[in-house]
Design goal:
alpha/beta, single chain, Rossmann fold, five-stranded mixed sheet, 31% helix, 2 domains
Length: 160
């Protein structure tokens, strides 16, 4: 990793300096995460027009070749980011082997190594947890508030 003077920003805090030193010492263990909107692409009035900023893909590819993994974490569906950014057209050509996109804040996961979109492990775990607990608790959504209360015996019937 090039650490020449002027190539890296100077940290404003001790914690930032320690984090940067750790990345420089062992870049293969580093995970660099970024957002899409407002970081890789400008904020625009119409979300479907948020194309990646000039030079951002090249910078992302260069970064992905130097650290353990690069992640884009976004509230958008993964397919939208792939389409708007052009990343899917660059896979295999632009050094994106260590790029992951977590769409819908982690519910979807795309990995450049496989070029596939799947459910994240978090989503699979959450689904299993909900299925297990469905027989023991009942969730009630009212006025955008959630309450958890013991399920009645009749609602647990067949789940024991």
């Amino acid at each position: 990793m090039d650490t020449s003077a002027g190539m890296l920003p100077e940290s404003r805090t001790e914690a930032g300096a320690a984090g940067l030193a750790a990345i420089i010492a062992e870049p293969a263990r580093a995970v660099i995460a970024t957002d899409y909107d407002g970081t890789l692409a400008p904020i625009v009035e119409r979300p479907e027009q948020a194309v990646v900023a000039p030079g951002a893909l090249a910078a992302l590819a260069a970064l992905a070749s130097k650290v353990g993994e690069v992640a884009i974490i976004t509230g958008r569906p993964v397919r939208d980011v792939l389409r708007l950014s052009g990343i899917s057209r660059q896979v295999g050509h632009g050094g994106f082997g260590r790029l992951v996109i977590l769409g819908q804040y982690g519910l979807e996961r795309w990995d450049a190594r496989t070029d596939r979109i799947g459910r994240s492990a978090h989503r699979q775990h959450d689904r299993a947890r909900r299925r297990f607990h469905a027989s023991y608790v009942r969730l009630r959504y009212q006025d955008c508030k959630t309450s958890i209360e013991p399920a009645s015996r009749s609602s647990r019937a067949g789940h024991d």
